[in-house]
Design goal:
This protein has 453 residues and is mainly alpha-helical. Helix 1 packs antiparallel against helix 10 and helix 10 packs parallel to helix 13. The two termini are 26 Å apart.
Length: 453
């Protein structure tokens, strides 16, 4: 039975059977992730089908730069969610209100300088990536317009995290679904009806982001009337701000460096030819969709742990996480049983080239069967972040990438061939677990709990 709090759509995770609670909370997150993927898919389809191949390349080429710039705010969203979940477990509405006001004040203060920095550094960053001259100006135009939407993107991310912290994953889904539908309509209007090209798809993204931000503000006022939230009431609670930064900044840095790591891997992949690149990219898309349920559940675990730590129910934390690990291990087995036998059919959704299919299958055969290792890593990271410990998960993730995955990819491809490079993922996951598991069983993370409760 799922326990609803007196605030509609919020879930009190501090009582009841953990598994139904976590799955109920995770399902809207899964749907939200699908809508999030829809943003990039629609952009690619619209400009690819109705503008040009150059426009399609221009829309995607700046993603690593944009992701690095926005990573710190993604991390702050995680920090806000964890802190709010602690306060919600304590039934401390004042703490929730202070967190919301503090983060929105910080958002309004910092967003304009970040936006200007992004606009003025677009050209230099694109040159650093050696972007081809035929798409350089289109990519620059897209990114400059995109940066105008950083303020609402940050605002929505923070407010969505607030809702997740109080156990409400349905409201962010509603907001994201409405924004995605608006984005689709505007993209076709600005690109197909009004031939604005790359700028059209960029403006459709910006306007839909402003829409989702304003919608999130309305929902906060409606669903959390106790906190009396005022958007332009400028106030920073030092303790809330300090805790949010402590939890969120390591996560943001991790995301930024992870993006850099992927850029470092790209030259290795590119050297094996067009068919290999196409097969790898298609397989990664399959991989991303397959792993979405696990990502949603581990996000739910972070909120579950946060609320129960706020309520000082450590035994319930351990019980719920153990039960959830059994569920996600079973989920990994089901996903493997579906993907591996039908891997060629899945690859044919992207291409009819037999060599591309073969290269993609090589990735899926080496990565999907070992998903259970990655799932364990995600579960420990979600647990520790929910407890307010973000530094060790960040260290584990970066060690997994920089000291294990990237070097082993180069070594494996050199000594055992291009296809065997993909074993680097499992090697990285194991290395991450070698840090996370001993730290968890050492009990040192419980010191954070003492500060919370």
């Amino acid at each position: 039975m799922v326990n609803k709090s007196r605030h509609s759509d919020t879930i009190d995770m501090t009582q009841g059977n953990p598994i139904p609670i976590i799955i109920t909370f995770a399902f809207p997150i899964l749907l939200g992730n699908l809508f999030q993927q829809l943003y990039t898919v629609v952009d690619g389809i619209v400009v690819g089908k109705h503008v040009s191949d150059q426009a399609l390349a221009a829309v995607g080429v700046g993603f690593p730069i944009i992701y690095m710039l926005t990573s710190i705010f993604i991390g702050l969203g995680v920090g806000s969610s964890v802190l709010v979940s602690h306060y919600f477990g304590q039934k401390n509405m004042k703490g929730i209100g202070d967190t919301i006001t503090t983060m929105n004040t910080f958002l309004l203060t910092i967003s304009i300088p970040i936006t200007l920095f992004g606009i003025f550094t677009t050209g230099p960053f694109l040159r650093l990536l050696n972007v081809q001259t035929d798409i350089f100006e289109l990519a620059k135009l897209y990114m400059v317009i995109y940066y105008i939407g950083l303020l609402p993107q940050f605002g929505y991310n923070i407010n969505s995290s607030i809702f997740q912290g109080i156990g409400d994953s349905k409201t962010p889904l509603i907001m994201l679904a409405a924004s995605s539908i608006l984005h689709i309509i505007l993209a076709y209007l600005f690109v197909v009806v009004l031939p604005w090209g790359v700028s059209g798809v960029a403006w459709s993204t910006v306007l839909s982001q402003y829409f989702s931000w304003f919608l999130s503000i309305i929902y906060i006022k409606k669903k959390l009337p106790d906190i009396k939230f005022r958007m332009f009431h400028m106030h920073i609670d030092k303790q809330c701000f300090k805790e949010t930064l402590r939890i969120g900044v390591p996560t943001g840095i991790q995301n930024a460096l992870f993006s850099v790591g992927m850029m470092v891997m790209q030259p290795l992949i590119n050297q094996f030819g067009t068919a290999y690149i196409a097969g790898y990219n298609a397989a990664v898309k399959v991989d991303g969709f397959v792993f979405m349920p696990v990502t949603a559940i581990t996000t739910a675990v972070t909120t579950y742990v946060g609320q129960n730590i706020g309520a000082n129910k450590l035994d319930r934390v351990k019980k719920g996480v153990k039960a959830t690990m059994v569920v996600v291990m079973g989920l990994c087995f089901v996903m493997c049983a579906i993907v591996i036998p039908f891997r060629s059919q899945l690859m044919h959704l992207f291409t009819d080239n037999a060599e591309v299919v073969e290269r993609g299958n090589a990735y899926l055969l080496r990565v999907i069967p070992l998903y259970f290792i990655s799932t364990l890593q995600y579960m420990y990271i979600g647990l520790l972040r929910g407890a307010g410990e973000s530094l060790v998960p960040t260290i584990a993730t970066l060690v997994s990438l920089w000291l294990a995955r990237v070097p082993s990819a180069y070594l494996l491809s050199n000594y055992f061939g291009a296809d065997n490079m993909h074993w680097c993922y499992a090697i990285g996951w194991v290395m991450g677990l070698c840090i996370l598991i001993p730290y968890y069983h050492s009990g040192k993370w419980k010191k954070r709990i003492e500060k919370v409760v």
